[in-house]
Amino acid sequence: MTTIGLIHPGAMGASVGAAGTHNQHRVLWADADRSNETRERATRGKLEDCNSVANLVSESDVILSVCPPHAAEDVASEVIDCGYKGIFVEGNAIAPARSHVIADRITAAGARFVDGGIIGGPAWQAEAGTMFYLSGVDAPEIAALFDGSPLHTSVVSDQIGSASALKMVFAAYTKGSTALLTTILAVAEKQGVRANLEQQWGEAFTQKTHKQVAGNTAKAWRFTGEMEEIAATFAGAGFSDGFHLAAADIFSRLKDFKDTPATSIDQVLDELS
After folding, report:
1. Residue 232 has what pLDDT?
2. What angle do CA 94, 176, 180 make, to 5 degrees?
3. Distance of CA 128 to the CA centre of its chain
4. What is the predicted pLDDT for the residue at 260?
5. pTM of the model
6. What is the distance between the alpha carbons of residues 71 and 271, in angstroms, rounded to a whole number?
7. pLDDT digits (tens, 9 = 90+) for 212-229
8. Domain 3-160 belongs to what architecture?
């Protein structure tokens, strides 16, 4: 049995932790100073409370970091400060270069590092098709923890940064296209030609677009940082970062929908205007 420590289980992280329990592994989290929503997710995932991050780190063979991109380095620092020597799995939506930075810090502190990228929604059920891509020399060991669980795994390579790169280029389209469509509708609304545009699009594409745009507002606050990481990935590969920085801007304008997601496209466009 492996003991897995999950720091700060969010909407995605809690489901990943729950998947880790399917092979009789022990999955820990730390309740101290967390919200009621986090506690509810941990309870749903059958995670074991160990009270503090220090306790979690001392008891864990594997640490899973699944958090918003902006918090990735803070989580790594917290683990390093607790003297961790096991395997640290960086499962966040960050640029490959940033994954390398964290890997260097983790390994310099005496621990091992696995790069990861999650594609899909929360993995409460196998039917969701959520993929956890992993890379690094210890990636197969982490993949094996989730055998037969609702979370599907795939080892990309033995190179740190490969899993992060795959996550970045995938989200560059899926979430980047949502930002583009949101902006197109906002501009068309301001120019007074939205009805004409939607007539040209046709009813099917228009309704699909409305659903895509309004359906992602609750997560827009997280997508801002992810777009910035994608921009850094593109720049690091020698391409322009402009499109995804613009996408980050449009998602940042929708951050107030975090607790009350939009119910219609008109509500989204009102917020942007």
Report:
1. 98
2. 150
3. 15
4. 85
5. 0.93
6. 27
7. 999 999 999 999 999 999
8. 3-Layer(aba) Sandwich (3.40)
What does the pLDDT read at residue 252? 97
State the pLDDT at residue 31.
84
Tokens found for residue 237:
């590969």
* Domain residue limits, the chain: 3-160, 166-272
Count of residues making up the chain: 273
Structure-derived torsion over alpha carbons of residues 122, 126, 127, 129, reported in degrees to the nearest 10: 60
- Residue 32 is predicted with a pLDDT of 77
Compute CA distances 167 → 134, 176, 194, whole Å.
Answer: 10, 13, 33
CATH of 166-272 given 3.40.50.2000, 1.10.1040.10, 1.10.600.10, 3.40.50.300: 1.10.1040.10
Q: At 70, is the secondary structure helix, strand, or coil?
A: helix
Tell me the torsion sign for CA atoms 184, 12, 42, 116: negative
Q: Which of 130, 31, 7 is nearest to 80 (CA)?
A: 7
> Minimal CA–CA distance to 101: which of 172, 92, 82?
92
At 83 the pLDDT is: 95
Q: Which residues pair with 155 in a beta bridge?
A: 134
Q: What is the pLDDT of residue 132?
A: 98
31-68 b/e (C-beta count within 10 Å ≥ 16 → b): eeeeeeebeebbeebebbbbeebebbbeebbbbbbbbb
> What's the token pair of residue 37?
């929503």
The low-confidence residues of the chain, meaning pLDDT below 50, are none
Report how far residue 78's alpha carbon sits from residue 84's, in angstroms, rounded to the nearest whole number: 9
- Helices and strands: H and E segment counts in the chain: 12, 8
Neighbours of 180 (CB within 10 A): 15
